[in-house]
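Model the whole thing, not chain by chain.
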Amino acid sequence: MSDGVVKILDGNTFVVSDEAGDIEASLTDPTGLFSFDTRFLSKWVLTINGQRLGALSVDDLQYFETRFFLVPGTGTVYIDAKLSVIRQRSVAAGFHEDLTILNHADKSVTLDIRIEAASDFADLFEVKDALKKKGTYSTSTRGGKLVLGYDRGPFSRATEISATKPARVDSEGLSFRVRVPAHGEWTTGLDVVTARLGGGQAPVKVADPARARARMARDLDRWISAAPRIECDWDALKNTYRRSLVDLAALRFSPPIAGGRSLPAAGLPWFMTMFGRDSIFTSLQALPFTPELAATTLRALGDWQGVRLDDFRDEDPGRILHEMRYGEMTAFEERPHSPYYGSVDATPLYVILLDEYELWTGDRAIVRELEIEARAALAWIDEYADIAGDTGYIWYKRRNEKTGLENQCWKDSWDSISYRDGSLPGFPRATCELQGYAYDAKVRGARLAREIWKDAELAAKLEAEAADLKRRFNRDYWVADGEYFALALDPDGRQVDALGSNNGHLLWSGIVDKTKAKAVARHLLGPRLFSGWGVRTLAEGEARYNPIGYHVGTVWPFDNSFVAWGLRRYGFKDEAAEIASGILEAAEFFDGRLPEAFGGYERSQTKYPVQYPTACSPQAWSTGAPLLLLRTMLGLEPQGEHLVVDPVLPQEIGHLELLDIPGRWGRIDAFGRGRVDVTKRLRSRR
Amino acid sequence: MAKPTPDPTERFFDAVAEFGYAPLLRKAEGTTRFEIVDGKRTSRWFVTANKGHLSVSRRGAGDPECAIRADKAIFEKIASGKLNAVAAVLRGDLAIEGDWRLLIWMQRLFPGQRPPRRTRTAGYARRRG
């Protein structure tokens, strides 16, 4: 996303515009008003007396509301600074815009105000892949409204545009001829409403925009005040924390399936939808802060758990979904996202989240409520994920070879899994972190079975399987000459031997033999993986390493938060603090909002973290990263009915307090003081 | 005289009624009204879920929690697992009002598609040790 692009959102409805508030989208450009994965407005351009406007400033009032201050003229020389224009826009069932024109002159003026509007009704997939439309467009001007429509068989979408002041409406927009008195103002409201019609469906009921705004503002206040408070000497951390909470609030959405409850969507602009993996990771990160996200995620993903074998959707019984979409291509099954099940980590992660959620909240009822789903997820690991045939590992190979995903792990780009020499393995592939998640799911599943489902037999079986998996894994994946775990096994059972950040996830899962953990930690903080800001996805020196390669060298804040948690799990407290310090310092450069990924360049080389060119922002699991890092640094760990606090903090944090941490203990405060000198390692490297 | 063979829609609702208790639907609560349109004729079915216990009737009282309306041909494809209900809703082939979850839970009852070929590769055939 380029600079100067303003985004506001509510659930999966969002607006992306330029700094003047205008929208002029091309097919490949993700600007416009989007809702349910469809672009409902691709053009929205304001002119006064035929002239475009230039931005003086943009205020992000809330995540769902922005104010643009404008003057006529777009160049550096203002043609008429006697006028100023304010557009205040908020998202709710489309968007509402208050347009105000102020006349600063001592005589009245007559103005021609024009809003040009159009929609291409593109599916987000079409915007990503630049595809052509198959349906027909229509426009009508009924009752002072401009209605833009798109139809393809029973599929029908419409955008209704209206103004609160009388307007001349034509097929390309709205016009006003107004007289603004000396030192006076003129204002109108503009409403853009997205409607899904057809198939006998009633239009989606539109809430009163003003009430919707008030509701969202109240909800945000409640959200912030329910989360723990932070006190610390480092102002930037306070800012990052607040930014994370607000962005997390913004990224919540209520899919039609969730019964009015909300769960985290993955990210703006491409991923405002339910993703199994992202929703689970984000819920894990946010557990000590906003545990209700985890409960909704578990319920919603449980509702959609796979029940059948469906090659097109890569669905199996027990499998947790990968991605849900609502656009035209999904509707016509040109894409399998209704929903698509092509990820192999979401299913074991589901069990991990359920256990971790109970450990924090003591909510045994949900563990009983979701017993069938959790058992089905555990069964999936053995019955459906071992597609290479009785190997005892999770593998992936898509059955939908046309539109399914090739890489069904979190590093899902085409070249993410490679040998040291850069060559790519065939399919199926068994990436290492999947085995770690499977191990952890079995260990945690055993606890749930024994303590809550009262099924000692299942517990014993899972524990035996976990122990066996751990033993085999430490033998089959260990790259002896490099002292780390291979990225994956290839179809012949050979090691895909490149070094990647996946090793940190293995520590998090607990699958790593204690005797091997030190070597793994040394790599994670070593010069090949650690950039000074964070751990690179792929180590420097591997043939495919590229500091701005999506999964082959960039630093992912989400990845690092789990790496730090893993280090902490094996007792590497200082090392975890070092990673936390690097990522939180990077956050400062992004004004508290960590992008999806940034460049893997050596910190001493660039001095600031270089944002990955097309990174999504805000992105849920990047937003969650500072939260998990706070948990990790403070050493927060539920034990029975208590919360253990064991802080090991980087020096520059100074004093840190996290107050009112919710959980089965009620509310607890955690305090710590920074003592780890994180600059030592970096100094020694120069 | 033998009873005439029921049509696929009737067979489906008979099967739902015979399901009795469906553990996968134990969280579903409420009534879903199905309006199946066959030319000028509309037949109605009410499926009530109560903690996994399902009952079917041709008459309903009050407003259902979920209302579904579809052409008979479309509905029968969904009921036989040939058509995906969610895609049909997005397309506008299946109209739905109310709590979507009831449809998703109901879809769990629809028969699956053919089982896939198991993907097995030659090289790494057996678990070692």
